[in-house]
């Protein structure tokens, strides 16, 4: 845990927060903090800051919080992901938050098992804990927005265009001849579409391209969903960072 991530409900006044859960245990047992110890803190969906420990006991920790004036930059990468196997998605939640994804849309596809959408791994009480774990690992505060869309065609036809209006839309598929670094990332948000391990169908590829997606590939190797997600999101974030000029920082 490289950041103590706070929520508004943790505050007893404008500056003081009290913790009684696993964060307090981490502060006591791992950081071995005593009064006066300074900690890296952040407000969920808000600024980073420095917390000074005021009191520690077996029940909890009291922290005085000094937050920065500006929030950290929002992630520029969003993800449209064909619903993976639940055990794979369980592994992905924290990693996607740590890498920096602004919005995650889990969508159905022809080669997705319908029962995947009945899994507890898409329950907000389950995945939010893992997303926060990823944020604390990466010292980030922006919680990804998660949308679950179990019907592919209605989502693409009725909702998609309103959600992603000014994005560079990139569709990962082995048939794509262009590489990701061949697209213009300058000043744009980026939406990556990653299909199921069996691949998008011809209909799905056609439908996505009709709504602005451009095909790209990453070579002849066929990757598992979790490997592809981590590799592609990491590359997209680096390309987005490289496209920012000094005046934009």
Automatic annotation (TrEMBL):
Alphabetical GO biological process terms: rRNA base methylation
Class in the EC hierarchy, top level: transferase
Keyword list, A-Z: Cytoplasm, Methyltransferase, rRNA processing, S-adenosyl-L-methionine, Transferase
Catalyzed reactions: uridine(1498) in 16S rRNA + S-adenosyl-L-methionine = N(3)-methyluridine(1498) in 16S rRNA + S-adenosyl-L-homocysteine + H(+)
Alphabetical list of Pfam families matching this protein: Methyltrans_RNA
Record-listed E.C. numbers: 2.1.1.193
Gene Ontology terms, MF aspect: rRNA (uridine-N3-)-methyltransferase activity
Family annotation (PANTHER family): 16S RRNA (URACIL(1498)-N(3))-METHYLTRANSFERASE, RIBOSOMAL RNA SMALL SUBUNIT METHYLTRANSFERASE E
Stated name of the protein: Ribosomal RNA small subunit methyltransferase E
Organism: Pontiella sulfatireligans
């Amino acid at each position: 845990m490289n950041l103590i991530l706070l929520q508004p409900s943790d505050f007893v006044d404008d500056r003081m927060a009290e913790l009684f859960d696993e964060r307090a245990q981490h502060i006591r047992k791992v950081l071995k903090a005593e009064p006066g110890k300074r900690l890296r803190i952040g407000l969920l969906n808000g600024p980073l800051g420095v917390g000074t420990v005021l009191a520690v006991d077996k029940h909890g920790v009291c922290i005085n919080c000094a937050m920065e004036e500006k929030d950290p930059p929002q992630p520029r990468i969003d993800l449209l992901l064909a619903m993976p196997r639940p055990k794979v998605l369980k592994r992905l939640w924290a990693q996607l938050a740590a890498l920096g994804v602004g919005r995650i849309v889990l969508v159905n596809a022809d080669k997705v098992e319908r029962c995947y959408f009945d899994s507890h791994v898409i329950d907000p009480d389950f995945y939010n804990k893992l997303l926060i774990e990823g944020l604390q690992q990466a010292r980030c505060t922006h919680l990804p927005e998660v949308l679950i869309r179990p019907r592919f065609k209605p989502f693409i036809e009725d909702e998609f265009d309103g959600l992603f209006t000014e994005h560079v839309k990139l569709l990962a598929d082995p048939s794509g001849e262009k590489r990701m670094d061949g697209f213009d990332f300058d000043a744009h948000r980026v939406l990556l579409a990653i299909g199921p391990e069996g691949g998008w169908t011809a209909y799905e590829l056609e439908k996505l391209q009709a709504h602005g997606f451009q095909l790209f590939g990453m070579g002849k190797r066929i990757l598992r969903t979790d490997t592809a997600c981590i590799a592609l999101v990491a590359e997209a974030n680096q390309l987005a960072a490289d496209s920012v000029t000094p005046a934009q920082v």
